Each structure stands twice: as C-alpha cells, then as structure tokens.
TrEMBL record:
Native source organism of the sequence: Moschus moschiferus
GO CC list: mitochondrion
Stated name of the protein: NME/NM23 nucleoside diphosphate kinase 6
Family according to the record: Belongs to the NDK family.
Gene: NME6
The protein's required cofactors: Mg(2+)
PANTHER family: NUCLEOSIDE DIPHOSPHATE KINASE 6 (PTHR46956:SF1)
Listed Gene3D superfamilies: Nucleoside diphosphate kinase-like domain
Length: 119
C-alpha cells in the first residue's frame, strides 16, 4: 500500500502500547492494528516483548504523568532509535511522501522517489 502524506506541520512521535489481553487474541490484535491505520497513524517501529508484572508496574510508576516521559518511553522500547535522527532524516520523508506500508513488517516507510539522496 502506497500513499502520499502532505502535511505542513512536522509529524509527532506517539508510543502505542497494546496490553497482553489484546495481544493474546489475534482477531483483537488485528482490529487494534486496523484502527491505528484507519486513523491515519504511520507506524514507524514495531516491537513485541514480554514483561514481568513487576517490570510493568515500575515502567508505569516512572512514566505516569510527564510530557518528557515520551522520549524515555521510546528509548525503553527502542534503545537503538534516535529521535533526533528520526526528526532530521525520516520525518520529512514520511511527511512529504510517498509512503509505503509493509504488511509483513507492520510499519510504514518512505518510498524511494528515484531522486538523489536516501529514500
């Protein structure tokens, strides 16, 4: 699936956490995934992980009420993800399109444009 996203404003990063009871049911998980896509969110990274109850409680206690926590949360789930690099390199490409969605990978990515520079 290819689309062109034209936005005068910079894209924002949003972390979506899907709880275990939804992930346990493939039909519910697919419905959640489709809801995210139908609301025109771009999925730029995806990861599955299994946490102990204690890890979850600690995570929510540390991140319950802070705007700054979004960067910490993204770093907790995607340690190799660089927000600065994403805003400098990937965000403009995703904002101006064209954008592909990979069903296998479950993420969006900038489509090659045929011009110079990275796609």
């Amino acid at each position: 699936m290819t689309s062109i996203l034209r936005s005068p404003q910079a894209l924002q990063l949003t972390l979506a956490l899907i709880k275990p009871d939804a992930v346990a049911h493939p039909l519910i998980l697919e419905a959640v995934h489709q809801q995210i896509l139908s609301n025109k969110f771009l999925i730029v990274r995806m990861r599955e992980l299994l946490w102990r109850k204690e890890d979850c409680q600690k995570f929510y206690r540390e991140h319950e009420d802070s705007v700054v926590s979004a960067s910490r949360e993204i770093a907790a789930f995607f340690p190799d993800f660089s927000e600065q690099r994403w805003y400098e390199e990937e965000e403009p490409q995703l904002r101006y399109g064209p954008v592909h969605y990979s069903r296998e990978g479950g993420i969006h990515f900038a489509a090659p444009t045929g011009g110079p520079g990275p796609a």
